[in-house]
Amino acid sequence: MYQSKIAGVGKYVPENVVTNNDLAEMMDTNDAWIQERTGIKERRHIKDGDGNSTAIMGVKAAKIALERAKVKKDDIDLIVFATLSPDYYFPGCGVQVQEMLDIKTCPALDVRNQCSGFIYGLSTADQFIKTGMYKNILVIGSENHSGGLDFTTRGRSVSVIFGDGAGAVVLTRSDNKEQGILSTHLHSEGKHALELSLKGPSTEHWVPEIIAENPQGDDIPYYPYMNGQFVFKNAVVRFSEVIMEGLKANNLEVKDIDMLIPHQANLRISQFIQQKFKLSNEQVYNNIQKYGNTTAASIPIALCEAWENDKIKAGDKVVLAAFGSGFTWASAVISW
After folding, report:
1. 205 and 269 fall within a common domain
2. Low-confidence winner among 93-107, 174-188, 216-230, 255-269 (lowest mean pLDDT)
3. Which residue range is the domain that position 285 belongs to?
4. Which of 29, 75, 159, 267 could form a disulfide with 149 if both were Cys (CB 3.0 to 4.6 A apart)?
């Protein structure tokens, strides 16, 4: 069995900053209301004419990760792309990245696990490397939320939370068993699928059918729905469980965590976990205040930013954890 390690990290967020006060001009909300409930101060949104899309932002993050990893594009054996907001219904963004980076023919697959998507993608890539099938894998998380949100008072409970952006890592084969991804842990509980969901457009809710059923635009099922309190209650439980699962699998304790990077769903969830595990501010990295919830992109963006700010050093034990729609939840334990 080979070991896989993260050789390079990269991130990209649109230049267009959308503050809470900007949103207050579109809907009945205000800065204090948003910060109290989510911890978010601002987020980035794609702007018409800026040339961005889910795939394009993924490519921008990937180029940085490749350069830092010192891996040539044609040495990539597999592309794994995690998103809930692909440019097209099909094909997926993975093949777009292959074409945009001008990578020679290589496999590309797309992961649809929403907030847990990046860790699911990382785990998938890790298995391909551990078995010896591939040597270098590009894993991307990218989201264009702003293109599909309801920016009216009706949609404020969801729309104030989400932002756009992308993060990427290059995973490579390593002979050092003490360095790299130590383990990943994946879970799901489909009975709660509709508590955080987007029903359409889909094979059950095509656009013409939706318009016919909702001529006034009421209760349109192609905007996201979230049962916020229910999601919060489940998130804090599953976050705790999956973090402890990863630690126990590697004979580690909470005190051994050098850096916890949780999915940036809600600052209150991260703070709850931090307090429960008695972790210091130096042991937890949050940037939801600046970027909002970027779903599959949130962990790689935060991981990249933490590394860029010298918050992660060689030998550190880094724990990634996520919970979201599905419900799905996951963790990864890394020796940096």
Report:
1. yes
2. 216-230
3. 181-335
4. 159
